């Protein structure tokens, strides 16, 4: 396996109803068919916050206006290492849309564990479930 770590900006977007935005990875993608928090690779020379804003706009029509770092997770899949730089998006403009044709949903926090996510997401899910009032 390559020792290169893929740096990924990941957004946990919460709406005023307290629901969280999840989307489904396409079958052909790495960790295909699993659910994810929208986001994508940080490009060379780009800040994580910029990548987060760019990816959420490109994938979900969400314009980030307020965000805060939540956690950073390093995970090695059999074929790829990732660093998930996870941000909580607490304010945004725009209506969510699957701009890449992907399925997406607003989900109540306590229902997040009903959706299959990549193994690297386990610590994020634990954090979010622990945060609920
Ligand atoms: N966006 C996102 N990626 C995740 C999550 N969990 C997880 O392991 N990943 C992994 C899967 C991929 O290997 C990588 C993200 O890459 P990506 O395919 O979304 O990147 P991208 O949006 O820039 O897409 P592309 O243009 O390269 O196809 O991080 C998650 O919750 N959200
Ligand atoms: Mg992506």
UniProtKB/TrEMBL annotation:
Reactions catalysed: 8-oxo-dGTP + H2O = 8-oxo-dGMP + diphosphate + H(+); 8-oxo-GTP + H2O = 8-oxo-GMP + diphosphate + H(+)
UniProt entry tagged with the keyword DNA repair: yes
Cofactor dependence: Mg(2+)
E.C. number: 3.6.1.55
Positions with a binding annotation for 8-oxo-dGTP: 25, 30, 36-39, 121
Molecular function terms, GO-annotated: 8-oxo-7,8-dihydrodeoxyguanosine triphosphate pyrophosphatase activity; 8-oxo-7,8-dihydroguanosine triphosphate pyrophosphatase activity; 8-oxo-dGDP phosphatase activity; 8-oxo-GDP phosphatase activity; metal ion binding
Broad EC category: hydrolase
Any single GO BP term: DNA repair
Gene3D superfamilies named in the record: Nucleoside Triphosphate Pyrophosphohydrolase
Keywords, comma-separated and alphabetical: DNA damage, DNA repair, DNA replication, Hydrolase, Magnesium, Metal-binding, Mutator protein
Positions of Mg(2+) binding: 39, 59
Pfam families in alphabetical order: NUDIX_4 (PF14815)
Domain Nudix hydrolase: 3-130
NCBIfam families: mutt
Family: Belongs to the Nudix hydrolase family.
Name recorded for this polypeptide: 8-oxo-dGTP diphosphatase
Protein's organism: Aliidiomarina maris
